[in-house]
Write a structure and sequence with these properties.
The protein is of the alpha/beta class. It is built from eight helices and twelve strands. The strands form three sheets. Strands 6-9-10-3-11-12 form a six-stranded mixed beta sheet, with helices on both faces. Strands 2-1-4-5 form a four-stranded antiparallel beta sheet, with helices on one face. Strands 7-8 form a two-stranded antiparallel sheet.
Length: 249
């Protein structure tokens, strides 16, 4: 689905990524782990078009890509759920889902929003995830953290036809809300979507992923099939307790 080869990125004298390579398989949930400052967010921003790489190659669906903006990545079928969710608090549920993709009714030059269609479509999107669906006209700032997270993921699922990237998808959520969001993520895999999940929560990584990649100090040091490794091994890679890892299976 996606291959990154020998990605390098510097910020002045700071080397954020050095010769980083990884690949994502179709229909899998891939975990990306590493300590703070390991380069996870930088790599995700390069994949999603927020940052330009200094060197290296990215292929998406077998073809080289060089996204100049998140809009270009979205047009190719890559959606990103950021840690801050990128929701507008004073807008309604349906307005957030259709933000930047608003439906117009009547002559184009009048720019009349088709609020009924957007509200109805959003309701159907959220019903797929078997959550307590909020009123479509409710401002998202009035919703629970779990509801806001699911709305953000539903928006990504609605528009991301191939790959969804999730940066700390359950940060600051309670146990029940976390499990609800994880159920949504697993349901997306059943629909054939590929996902890249960045998380500090190793229990979560082991619950939902098929494969784990480990970044340490800007270098990709290992990958493991989730069911063939243990949390202690992953922790040792993250902390540097294991000196030399290799590519793994």
């Amino acid at each position: 689905m996606l291959r990154a080869a020998s990605i390098n990125k510097r910020f002045g004298a700071v080397v954020a990524l050095h010769d980083v390579s990884m690949n994502l398989a179709p229909g899998e949930i891939t975990g990306l782990v590493g300590d703070n400052g390991a380069g996870k967010s930088t790599l995700v921003k390069i994949i999603s078009g927020v940052l330009r790489r200094d060197a290296g190659l990215i292929e998406f669906d077998g073809a080289p890509v060089n996204f100049g903006s998140p809009a270009e990545a979205r047009a190719s079928g890559i959606e990103t759920v950021y840690q801050d969710l990128a929701l507008v608090g004073n807008l309604t549920v349906w307005a957030n889902v259709y933000l930047g993709r608003e439906l117009i009714v009547g002559p184009r030059y009048l720019n009349i929003l088709d609020k009924r269609a957007m509200s109805s479509n959003t309701l159907e999107m959220l019903k797929q995830f078997q959550i307590n669906v909020p009123p479509m006209d409710a401002p998202v700032e009035t919703l629970s953290g779990g509801q806001r997270q699911v709305i953000s993921i539903a928006r990504a699922a609605a528009w991301g036809s191939r790959l969804i990237i999730m940066d700390e998808p359950t940060a600051a959520l309670g146990v029940a809300e976390t499990r609800a969001v994880e159920a949504v993520i697993l349901s997306l895999r059943q629909r054939g979507l590929s996902m890249l999940v960045i998380s500090h929560n190793l229990d979560q990584i082991f619950r939902i992923t098929d494969r784990i990649w480990v970044l340490r100090r800007g270098r990709m040091i290992a990958q493991r099939v989730t069911k063939e490794t243990l949390p202690d091994e992953i922790v040792s890679m993250i902390t540097g307790a294991t000196a030399s890892i290799g590519p793994g299976k």
